[in-house]
Amino acid sequence: MNSKEPSPFVVRQQAALQERWPFADTQDFEDARRGLIATLDPCVIRAEDGRVVWDNDAYAFLSGDAPDTVNPSLWRQSVLVSMQGLFEVVEGIYQVRGFDLSNVTFVEGDTGVIVIDPLISVETAAAALALYREHRGDRPVTGVIYTHSHVDHFGGVRGVTTQEDVDAGRVPVLAPEGLVEHAVAENVYAGTAMSRRAGYMYGAALAKGPQGQVGAGLGQTTSTGTVTLIRPTVDITTTGQVEVVDGVTIEFQMAPGTEAPAEMHFFFPSYGALCMAENATHNLHNLLTLRGALVRDPNVWSKYLTEAIDLFGDRTDVAFASHHWPTWGRDRAVGFLATQRDLYAYLHDQTLRMLNQGMTGPEIAEALVLPPALENAWSTHGYYGSVSHNVKAIYQRYLGWFDGNPAHLWQHPPVEQATRYVEFMGGADAVVEKARASFEAGDYRWVAEVLGHVVFADQQHAAARELLADTYEQLGYGAENGTWRNFFLSGATELRDGAFGTPVATSAADLVAQLTPEMLFDALAIQVDGPRAWDEDVTVDVAFTDDGSRYRLRLANGVLTHRRVDAVEGADLTLTLPLHAQLVPVVMGGLTPEQMAEQGITLDGDASAIQRVVAVLQPGDPDFAIVTPEKE
C-alpha cells in the first residue's frame, strides 16, 4: 500500500493531544515492567510447517516519541502492550505476556502448575509454557481454567495439556457454566462474517509500522496458529463456589453477560491475588465489538465489579487480568476496579438519560463526555472500545436499530441510496471535486460519508477510490482506538490493493466438533438458500446408538427444522450413527454412502435425501465486500 504522509490537521491534533493527556504519568510503565524474569529472543513463534504464527519482534519500532502518523495515546498503549516475556505477579503466580492477543497465567500448586487462559493458538501456548518451565522448572500442568468464552482464552489449550490427561482426571478444566455453547455459537453461527470483519479489526493485511498496524489496544494482534478446545470438566455455576486444584484454593464469582456471555472472576486467598478475567483491563472495553457480537450489558458489568470489590477487595494484594499488566497494592487495586466500575456505569446511565430525552445513538455519542476524573485515568481510554461506538451499542441494546424517525424506517439499501445521492449531488465527478475541497479543509468524516456513496454508486470511479483511501488513512492516523485505526487503514488497503479476504477463520475443527446435534442442525439451517429450497420437502431421521437419541430433520417451505423424536418412522431416509462425532462430516456432505458404510453408518431409505439437503446449503462467503458494494 502506498501510504501518504499525515495532513497538517492530523499533525496539529497529535500535538494538541500531547499537551492534553498526562504523559508524565509513568506508573503503567513501572507496572508493565515489574517482575520481568525473561524474554523470548527472538519472539517469533512458528507452526510445525515453519509458518510464522506470532511475531512480536515486528513491533520493535515501538520506541521513542510517537510519530505524527499515530495518535500519541495509542502509541503509548502499544508500547506498553508490546512488552513480552515471563513476569512474576507474586511469588507463585506468573504471566507470559506479548505472545498473543491475551495473557496466559501460571499458578503454582503442590505438584504442578495451573494454567489460566491458554491463548488463541496451540503454538503460542506451548511456547509460553516452555518459557515458564525454562525458568520455573519442568512442572506438570495440573489444571486449566478458562475465564470466559472467547477464543483467545481457550484456543491454545492443546498446547499445554492433552485430551488424554483431561479424560484420565489428571488435569481438570474449569470454566463458567455454558462456556462451550457460547464459544461455539459465536464462532460458528456468524463466524464467517465475524472473521471477515476481524481481519479489519486487527489489521491482518496491514504492514506493521508507524503508517500501518501498531496494535489493537487490548493486545497487539491475534496469533494465526491452530485453534483447539477441550471441554470443561468442572462447571462453575454460582458465586461463592470454592474449588481446590492441586492444593490451591480458588473462590469464584460469576459474571455472565459482561464482556462475554459466560465469564467469571476468581480469587486465590493463599496468594492474595484476584483474577478479573477481561472485565477490568487497562482500557475501555467493547460493549459491541467491531467484528460483531451480541451487545454486552454495561449495567450488570458495573455491578459485578462492585460485587468483586465487596467480595475480595479487603483481601486483594494484586489484581490481574487476561490482558495487560497487573495492579499491585490493596488501595490501588480497589481504586482501579472502582474506576472501571464507574466508567461502565457512567456510559450506561448517561446514555439512558439522554435516550429518554429523545436523543438518538449518534447524537448521544457526540454529546457524551466523560467526567474529568475518568477522562484523566489512562485505564479508561478507548483503545479497544470507544465512547462513541459503546454509546451506540447501549442505544441498540435498549431500542434497537430504529431511532424513531419515520424517514429512517424504510430506507433504500446502500447501493440504491448511493445512486440517488450521487445523482442529486450532480454526479460522481462533481461530488469528488466537492469532497476534495472538504478533504483539504480537514473534514475527513464528511469526505468518508459522501465518497462512500460515490464508490457504492460507481465502484470503478478511480478518483473517488483514491480520495476515499486517502481519507480513511488520515482518519486512521488520528484514531486513539486501535481497532478504529485498523478498520480505517484496512479500508484504505482494500480500496488501493483489492480485497484481502479472511486471513484467519474461527470455526476451527475442534470447535465444530463440540457442536451438539441441536447446534449443528441450527448451523445448517442458517445456511439454507431459502428460494432454492422452496419446492423441497424432505425428511431425514437421525439416530445415535451411543446414547439412544433420535432427531427428525425436515426441509420444507425453505426452512430446515429439527426436533427430538421417540420413534423413527415415515422418513425419506433414516441415518443410524454409532457416534455423535460422525454427524459433522455426514451432514456437511463430506462422506459418500460407501464411506458411511465403512464407518458403520447405516442408511435406510432414499440415500439421495441427505444430498438434497446439502445441495441447498449456501456456506458463508469469507471474502464478502466491505468498502465496495461487490467483490471485484
Brief characterization of the structure:
The protein has 632 residues and is an alpha+beta fold.
Describe the 3D structure.
- The chain is α+β, with helices and mostly antiparallel strands and 632 residues long.
- It is built from 23 helices and 21 strands.
- Strands 1-4-5-6-7-8-9-10 form an 8-stranded mixed beta sheet, with helices on one face. The protein has a 6-stranded mixed beta sheet with strand order 11-12-13-14-15-16.
- Helix 14 packs parallel to helix 16 (462-478).
- The mean pLDDT is 94.
Sequence-ordered SSE layout with sheet pairings:
Layout: H1 8-20, H2 27-33, E1 36-38, E2 44-46, E3 52-55, H3 72-81, E4 85-90, E5 93-97, E6 104-108, E7 113-116, H4 122-136, E8 141-145, H5 163-167, E9 173-176, H6 179-188, H7 191-201, E10 234-236, E11 242-245, E12 248-254, E13 264-268, E14 273-275, H8 298-312, E15 318-320, E16 327-328, H9 330-355, H10 361-367, H11 372-375, H12 387-399, H13 414-424, H14 428-440, H15 444-457, H16 462-478, H17 482-497, H18 509-512, H19 517-525, H20 530-533, E17 537-544, E18 550-556, E19 559-564, E20 573-577, H21 583-587, H22 593-598, E21 602-605, H23 609-615
Parallel strand pairs: 7-8, 8-9, 9-10, 14-15, 17-20
Antiparallel strand pairs: 1-4, 2-3, 4-5, 5-6, 6-7, 11-12, 12-13, 13-14, 15-16, 17-18, 18-19, 20-21
